[in-house]
C-alpha cells in the first residue's frame, strides 16, 4: 500500500509501506536472505532469532526489523530475481548471464510464442514466461515427469504458470506448434530437433541452443546449415566478478568459467 506523505522543505516523498499479503525479502547479507508472506498471527524462525510477522505491517520498505536476538534485517519487496535464486532445483539451471543473452538473441518479447526444451527445473522457462507476458506463451517440452512436476511448482510459486503450457513429450518426435517466434533448446541432442524447429518457426523466427560441449555445437551448426538457417553464430560468455575495496580492487579469486556454448540462427 502507499504510505503517508513525508514532506521535507523542498521535496515530497511517497513511502511504500508493507501491507498484509505482501511478499517481502528479509535481507541479512549477500549470502543469507528469506522470502516470506506477510500474515497476521504468525512467527518466522531463523538462526538469528524470531520475528513476529505482523510487526512488519506498516513499516516502510527499506527499513529494518529486529529479531528476538536483536539482529537487524532489511525489509525489501521480493521480486522475480529473489525467487529465481531460491527455486527448487532437480537439475543444473542456466546461469543468468546465459539466460539473458538467450532471450535477447531469440528476440523474446511481450507477446512472443516460444517453444522450449527441456524444462528441467523451470528457471529458463520462468524467465521466458516473464518476458512474453501478458499476451505471449511458452510451450515447454520435457521427457521426465518428475522434472516437469517440480518445474510446475516453481512456476506457480512465481505466479507465471498461466503463461506456460507444459508438455510431457519427446520433442524429437515433433513440435506441435507452428508459426512460433522462437525455439530454444537446452538438451543433450539439439541437432536432432533442428529440422522440427524449422517447421515450427515462422519465417524470420530464431533458433537458439545451449550446449556444454563443443562437439554438440559442431553437430548443431552442421544440422542448421543443412536446414538452411542463416546468420548462424556460436558464442561463449565469460563473466568475471570483482572484489571492490579502496586501493585493493582486483578480480575475484574464484569465478564461474565455462558454463556452455550458445548457438543461434534464423529461419529463412
Counting helices, strands and paired strands, the structural category is alpha/beta
Q: What's the CATH topology name of the largest domain?
A: Rossmann fold
- Amount of beta strand: 25-35%
From the alpha carbons, calculate the radius of gyration and give it in angstroms. Answer: 22 Å
- Give the terminus-to-terminus CA distance: 50 Å
Amount of helix: 10-25%
The ordered string of helix (H) and strand (E) elements is EEEEEEEEHHEHEHEEHEHEEEE
CATH architecture identity of the largest domain: 3-Layer(aba) Sandwich
Tell me the total number of β-strands: 17
What's the CATH H-level homologous superfamily of the largest domain? Vaccinia Virus protein VP39
Note the total helix count: 6
Count of spatially separate domains = 2
Mean residue pLDDT: 92
Q: Strand count, sense and closure of the main sheet? A: 7 strands, mixed
- Uncertain regions spanning at least 5 consecutive residues: 4-14
Read across the widest sheet, the strand sequence of neighbours is 11-10-9-12-13-17-14
The dominant shape is globular
- Name the CATH class of the largest domain: Alpha Beta
Question: What do these coordinates show?
Answer:
The chain is α/β, with parallel strands linked by helices. The protein has two domains: 2-78, Vcp-like ATPase, Chain A, domain 2, CATH 3.10.330; 83-266, Rossmann fold (3-Layer(aba) Sandwich). The chain contains six helices and 17 strands. The protein has helices spanning 80-85, 96-105, 123-132, 145-158, 194-200, 214-226, and strands spanning 2-8, 11-16, 23-29, 32-37, 43-46, 49-52, 64-66, 72-77, 113-117, 137-142, 164-168, 180-185, 201-211, 230-236, 242-243, 250-251, 261-266. Strand 12 (180-185), helix 5 and strand 13 form a beta-alpha-beta unit.
Amino acid at each position: 500500500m502507499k504510505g503517508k506523505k513525508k514532506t521535507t522543505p523542498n521535496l515530497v516523498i511517497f513511502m511504500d509501506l508493507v501491507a498484509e499479503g505482501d511478499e517481502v525479502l528479509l535481507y541479512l547479507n549477500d549470502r543469507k536472505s528469506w522470502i516470506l508472506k506477510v500474515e497476521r498471527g504468525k512467527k518466522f524462525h531463523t538462526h538469528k532469532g524470531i520475528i513476529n510477522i505482523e510487526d512488519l505491517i506498516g513499516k516502510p520498505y527499506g527499513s529494518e526489523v529486529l529479531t528476538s536476538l536483536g539482529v537487524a534485517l532489511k525489509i525489501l519487496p521480493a521480486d522475480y530475481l529473489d525467487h529465481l535464486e531460491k527455486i527448487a532445483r532437480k537439475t543444473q539451471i542456466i546461469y543468468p548471464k546465459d539466460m539473458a543473452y538467450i532471450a535477447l538473441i531469440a528476440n523474446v518479447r511481450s507477446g512472443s510464442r516460444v517453444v522450449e526444451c527441456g524444462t528441467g527445473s523451470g528457471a529458463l522457462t520462468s524467465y521466458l514466461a516473464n518476458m512474453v507476458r501478458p499476451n505471449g506463451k511458452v510451450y515447454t517440452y520435457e521427457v521426465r515427469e518428475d522434472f516437469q512436476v517440480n518445474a510446475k511448482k516453481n512456476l506457480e510459486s512465481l505466479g507465471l504458470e498461466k503463461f506456460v503450457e507444459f508438455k510431457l513429450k519427446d520433442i524429437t518426435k515433433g513440435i506441435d506448434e507452428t508459426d512460433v517466434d522462437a525455439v530454444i533448446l537446452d538438451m543433450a541432442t539439439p541437432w536432432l530437433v533442428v529440422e522440427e524447429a524449422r517447421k515450427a518457426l515462422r519465417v524470420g523466427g530464431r533458433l537458439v541452443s545451449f550446449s556444454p560441449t563443443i562437439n554438440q555445437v559442431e553437430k548443431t551448426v552442421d544440422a542448421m546449415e543443412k536446414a538452411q538457417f542463416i546468420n548462424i553464430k556460436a558464442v561463449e560468455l565469460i563473466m568475471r566478478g570483482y572484489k571492490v575495496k579502496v586501493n585493493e580492487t582486483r578480480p575475484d579469486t574464484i569465478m564461474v568459467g565455462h558454463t556452455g556454448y550458445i548457438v543461434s540462427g534464423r529461419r529463412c
